[in-house]
Design brief:
59% of the residues lie in helices and 14% in strands. It is α+β, with helices and mostly antiparallel strands and 170 residues long. The protein has a four-stranded antiparallel β-sheet. Helix 1 packs across helix 3, helix 2 packs antiparallel against helix 3 and helix 3 packs antiparallel against helix 4.
Length: 170
C-alpha cells in the first residue's frame, strides 16, 4: 500500500462489503429472527444496536443518544484519519490496519446517520454464553486493531533510522 489510492481502495472495499452485507441480511431476515449458519455456534440474527461498540449503552435511555453516539463516532473517525495520514508509508502493517478501522468506522457511521442505529447480525455463542452481535464493520475494526498491535509488537526501526540513532549516541 505505497500510495493513498491503495489506502482508499481498502477503506472503500470494507465500506462496500459492510453496507452490502447489512442490506442483504436486512432484506432476508426479520428483526430478531435467527437463522443458523453453524447450529449452536453461529447464527445470523438481525438486531439494532443503538449504543456504541458491542452494544455498550444500548439499554440506557440517554437524551439525544443517537446524536451523541454519532458525534462521538465521527470524532473518533476523524482522530484515526488524522493519525493514519501521519503514519509513514514504510509502516505498511499499521497503514493496512488503519484502513480497516476507517472503513469499518465509516460503515457504522453511515448506519447511525441513515437509520439512527447500527445493523448487527453475526451472533456467535456457545450454550448460554453469547458474544454481542456484530457486523462486517465491527470485524474489520477488530482486525485493524489486531494489525496495529501486531505491528507494534514486531516493529523494527528502518536500518537508516537505527544507524542515525546509534551515530548520535556515540
Amino acid at each position: 500500500m505505497q500510495n493513498r489510492w491503495g489506502f482508499a481502495i481498502i477503506i472503500l472495499s470494507v465500506l462496500i462489503l459492510d453496507q452490502a452485507s447489512k442490506i442483504a441480511v436486512s432484506a432476508q431476515v426479520g428483526l430478531g429472527e435467527s437463522v443458523p449458519v453453524v447450529p449452536g455456534l453461529v447464527h445470523i440474527t438481525l438486531v439494532r444496536n443503538t449504543g456504541m461498540a458491542f452494544g455498550l449503552f444500548s439499554a440506557h435511555s440517554i437524551p439525544y443518544k443517537p446524536l451523541l453516539v454519532t458525534v462521538l463516532s465521527i470524532a473518533a473517525l476523524v482522530a484515526v484519519a488524522v493519525y493514519a495520514l501521519g503514519t509513514p508509508s514504510h509502516n505498511q502493517l499499521s497503514r493496512f490496519g488503519l484502513a480497516f478501522i476507517l472503513g469499518g468506522a465509516a460503515g457504522n457511521i453511515i448506519d447511525r446517520i441513515r437509520l439512527g442505529y447500527v445493523t448487527d447480525f453475526v451472533d456467535v455463542f456457545y450454550r448460554q454464553a453469547h458474544w454481542p452481535a456484530f457486523n462486517v464493520a465491527d470485524a474489520a475494526i477488530c482486525a485493524g486493531v489486531g494489525l496495529l498491535l501486531l505491528d507494534t509488537l514486531t516493529h523494527r526501526e528502518p536500518k537508516e533510522a537505527m544507524s542515525q540513532a546509534s551515530a548520535r549516541e556515540s
